[in-house]
Design goal:
Glutathione S-transferase Yfyf (Class Pi), Chain A, domain 2; 2 domains; alpha+beta; 5-stranded mixed beta sheet; Glutaredoxin; single chain; 9 helices; Glutathione-S-Trfase_C-like; GST_C; Glutathione S-transferase domain protein
């Protein structure tokens, strides 16, 4: 377990966040916090879930019905257990630096890309669960479902490519929520499942390579046994570009 910067000017935390070190939903929050560096936030990061070691502790798991992370708890005891809602809450309560965009057009583009990658992960998750060795014995394997969801996942990336311009970040001139959500998804697909960005997505690949060099996007450690079963998802399911 790692505890990271609690920083209120008076020395007390206003917001607590409990999170895991890897995975697309946790990484959205981890990357975002590293980029925004909000004051008044205490972050507790657990390496990975381990029921035998009570990690995360039962009192943290009990904060949400599913017992999953990330979880945000504020000074009033309000609990939020959904990654995008956590990002929105922090943006509403700690507006600077702004990571939603500076104009209506920028904010709309950020929201669009965030929702596209959220939808992309739904397809990717179904592809992985029903097509990889990691999902065997947990859900019913389905080559047909895996192929359909792989096609839909790559389709979302191609749509993102069409939206992108030659700008430093995925939605414009500044880092935004869209960069955090997209990076978490693509990093997980690449590092854990060995699924690359389609070769047609030149702008997306250029952005990914550049953003990967930022300290916020440092590659997390993955449980090697699980990664071994997940790695090579395209070969496992016979999917090709």
């Amino acid at each position: 377990m790692l505890r990271a910067r609690p920083v209120d000017k008076e020395g007390s935390a206003v917001i607590e966040i409990f999170n895991f070190a890897f995975g697309p939903y946790p990484q959205r929050v981890n990357i975002y916090l590293a980029e925004k560096r909000p004051e008044g936030v205490t972050v507790t990061v657990y390496t990975e879930p381990d029921r035998r070691a009570n990690t995360p502790p039962p009192e943290i798991q009990a904060l949400t019905p599913m017992g999953s992370l990330p979880i945000l708890r504020d000074a009033d005891g309000i609990v939020i257990g959904q990654s995008l809602a956590i990002l929105d809450y922090i943006e509403d309560t700690i507006p600077e630096p702004n990571m939603r965009g500076n104009t209506p057009a920028e904010r709309a583009k950020v929201r669009q890309i965030v929702h596209m990658f959220d939808e992309a992960f739904t397809f990717f998750g179904l592809w992985a669960r029903h097509g990889s060795a990691l999902g065997q014995g947990v859900v019913r394997s389905s080559r047909e479902l895996a192929e359909i969801c792989a096609e839909r996942y790559f389709g979302q990336l191609l749509l993102t490519e069409m939206l992108m311009r030659k700008e430093p970040f995925i939605a414009g001139e500044d880092v935004t929520l869209a960069d955090c959500v997209a990076m978490a998804m693509l990093q997980y697909a690449s590092d854990f499942y060995a699924v690359p960005i389609p070769p047609e997505c030149v702008k997306l690949q250029t952005w990914f390579d550049r953003f990967s060099q930022r300290p916020s996007a440092k590659r997390p450690s993955y449980p090697e046994e699980q990664r071994g079963k997940a790695f090579g998802l395209m070969d496992q399911t016979g999917v090709r570009f």
